[in-house]
Design goal:
By secondary structure, the chain is an alpha+beta fold. The chain is 33% helix and 25% strand. It has a domain at 93-319: Penicillin V Acylase, Chain A, CATH 3.60.60.10. The strands form two sheets. Strands 1-4-5-6-7-8-9-10 form an eight-stranded mixed beta sheet. A five-stranded antiparallel beta sheet has the order 11-2-3-12-13. The model has no long low-confidence stretch (mean pLDDT 94). This is 6-aminopenicillanic acid acyl-transferase.
Length: 325
C-alpha cells in the first residue's frame, strides 16, 4: 500500500485527504445504507451541537474537516455527520481487533476491519502539518485520521477499536478526539486530553510509547475514561472490558464476542505470533480474520499492522489480507 506524503495547514491537509478519497466516497460510500442513515434529518441537532464543540475546542481539526469536505466536493454538514457516525448510531461498520504483547520486546498488532466496499480504496498518509505533530496513519476515504492505527513523530503509537455503548449524550465526536490525540506529545498528554472530553461515543485505544515500551489500554466515551496499564498479553475486540459504564450497557455483536473469546484462548495456549493470531480463522465461532461476504456486522479485515516498540526506533509492518475465498 503506497504512502501519500501530505503537508500544509489544517485546511490544506484536509483538502488533500478529501481528494485522495473522493472517488471512493462518491461512487462507493454514498451508495451505502449506512451513509443514508447517518445523513437522516433526525441527527441534525446532535451534529450541530458537536460542530459547535469542535469549532470551540479543536479549531485545527475543524479546519481539517472543512478542507476534507472541499476535497470530497461534498457539503460540510454531510462530511461532519459521517465523522460523527459513532455518536449518531450505536452500530456502525467499525470493527477491529488489537493484540497487546508487553515484555522485553513489546509488540502491538491490529486488524483494521471496515466496510468491504472500501477494500482497495484505503491509503496510508505521512503527514507533516504546519501546526501540530507529524504522524503516519491508515485512512479511510472521507474520514479524519486517528480512528484506525497511527504513529507520531513524538513517539506515540495508537490503534483504535469501536465500542458500542448503549446510552450517552455526546458533545464531541470520538473521531475528532482520535485526530487530536495525534497532536499530543506523550501518553500522559493523550490521556489528559481524553479525560477533558469524555462525552463522546465509545472507543478503545491501545496507546504506546516505543521509547519506554509502556502500553496502555484506554476505553472512553459516555462520560467515562478508563485506563489500564498492560503488563501481560491481551487481546481486545469491540466491547468494553474495563469501562464500567460500557460493561453495564453496551451492544456486543456475535463477531466481537467470538473474536474476544478466540483471541484469549490463543493467548492462553501460548501463541505469541501476532500475525498468526490476527489472521486466525479457527475456533467454533466467527473468525478473527474477517473475509466472509456475509459477515453479520457487514465488515471485513482490510489491513493488519504489527508495531515493534523499541527505544532505538519504532518498526512496523503492514499487511493486506488475502482476498475472500
Amino acid at each position: 500500500m503506497p504512502i501519500q506524503r501530505l503537508s500544509g495547514d489544517p485546511f490544506e491537509l484536509g483538502k488533500t485527504l478529501g481528494r485522495l478519497g473522493r472517488d471512493a466516497v462518491q461512487h462507493e460510500l454514498t451508495a451505502t445504507t449506512l451513509w443514508a442513515q447517518i445523513q437522516a434529518a433526525r441527527h441534525h441537532p446532535a451534529v450541530a451541537r458537536m460542530a459547535a464543540t469542535t469549532q470551540r475546542h479543536f479549531p485545527s481539526v475543524w479546519a481539517e474537516l472543512e478542507g476534507l469536505a472541499a476535497g470530497l466536493q461534498l457539503p460540510l454538514e454531510q462530511v461532519l455527520a459521517w465523522n460523527c457516525r459513532g455518536e449518531l448510531l450505536a452500530d456502525t461498520a467499525d470493527g477491529c481487533t488489537s493484540v497487546q504483547l508487553p515484555g522485553e520486546s513489546p509488540l502491538i498488532a491490529h486488524n483494521e476491519d471496515g466496510l468491504p466496499c472500501l477494500r482497495g480504496h484505503c491509503f496510508m498518509v505521512d503527514v507533516e502539518p504546519a501546526q501540530g505533530q507529524g504522524f503516519t496513519a491508515f485512512c479511510y476515504p472521507g474520514s479524519l485520521p486517528g480512528h484506525t492505527f497511527a504513529f507520531t513523530r513524538q513517539g506515540l503509537v495508537q490503534t483504535v477499536n469501536n465500542l458500542r455503548l448503549a446510552a450517552f449524550s455526546p458533545n464531541v465526536p470520538r473521531m475528532v478526539l482520535g485526530r487530536a490525540v495525534l497532536n499530543q506529545s506523550s501518553l500522559a498528554d493523550a490521556v489528559a486530553l481524553l479525560r477533558r472530553f469524555p462525552d463522546s461515543a465509545g472507543f478503545h485505544f491501545t496507546l504506546a510509547a516505543p521509547a519506554t515500551g509502556e502500553i496502555l489500554s484506554v476505553e472512553f466515551g459516555g462520560g467515562e475514561v478508563s485506563v489500564r496499564s498492560v503488563t501481560e498479553p491481551r487481546v481486545h475486540a469491540n466491547h468494553a472490558l474495563h469501562h464500567r459504564t460500557g460493561q453495564a450497557a453496551q451492544q456486543i455483536t456475535q463477531s466481537s464476542f467470538d473474536r474476544q473469546q478466540r483471541g484469549e484462548a490463543l493467548l492462553a495456549a501460548g501463541l505469541r505470533d501476532p500475525l498468526a493470531l490476527l489472521h486466525d480463522t479457527g475456533g467454533e465461532g466467527l473468525p478473527i480474520l474477517r473475509l466472509a461476504p456475509d459477515d453479520p456486522d457487514e465488515e471485513n479485515t482490510l489491513a493488519t499492522v504489527v508495531f515493534e516498540l523499541d527505544p532505538k526506533g519504532l518498526r512496523w509492518r503492514l499487511y493486506e489480507p488475502p482476498e475472500r475465498t
